[in-house]
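Sequence only, no structure available. Ideas?
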Amino acid sequence: EVQLEEFGGGSVQAGGSLRLSCAATGRTYCMAWFRQTPGHERAVVARIYTTGGRTTYADSVKGRFTISQDNAKNTVYLDMNNLKPEDTAMYYCAADRWECTDASLYWGQGTQVTVSS
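Reply:
I predicted one. Tokens follow.
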């Protein structure tokens, strides 16, 4: 079983920055951040393999967002820079215990990020 707790959402102006945190309990082989807006499916933003630290990003956030981890705290972060209005969404932390395929994910409760122009 995995439990995830998210912090750091809020409202910022375009060009600003936010840091999201996700504290996990239980096994987390792979962790990720997703986001979702009304009328759209939840889409991955960034992933990290917790053992080796390999990361991947959606094209829309490359160069602006950074996913990182603190293994001692079993916590992952999403540093979001140069935020744009189109980044406005509900952001969800997710974890996979055994793979990094999104076949069976545990989810956080979500945290709202709103970017104004």
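The mean pLDDT is 95.
Hope that gets you unstuck.
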